[in-house]
Amino acid sequence: MPFLVSGCVRVGATDHESEKETTLFFFYAGEFIMPLPHFSQAASFDIFVEFLAAAEVLDFESKHNKVLFKIFPEMLTISKKLHTIQYSAFMAHLEKRNILKGEQHYLELITAHPELLGFCRLEYLASFLGLEANSLSHIRSRLLKR
Questions:
Q1: What is the pLDDT of residues 35-56, one digit of tens each?
Q2: φ/ψ bin of 81: left (φ > 0), alpha (ψ from -120 to 50), beta (otherwise)
Q3: Structurally, how many domains does the chain consist of?
């Protein structure tokens, strides 16, 4: 399981028909990069991973997994907890997209992860928040005027 020491990783999907990209989630420095969800081959989109800034990742070859789990039996519990954390974070994000207004969701995101402002394109943030880029641009300019 790779560990992101520094940088930021964007996980997205590209629709086969429209070729439109959607940002699904981000991994931040200090987090494990969990395996991507497995989707049916019939899915109409491709999943991709993009490093948004210079990143340092710690990992080991997957062939060592069996040994790691044998030496450290608690790795199974840790792995399950990490997957639960990732799933919970993704579900919380979806809930916020559906409940919070765009401005409130944006403010929460940049308060929690201000580093995104330095290296994440506006379109990526907008997509992640469920907004159009021009809507997020209006929100940002309105906030700057305050």
A1: 766 555 557 888 889 999 888 9
A2: alpha
A3: 1
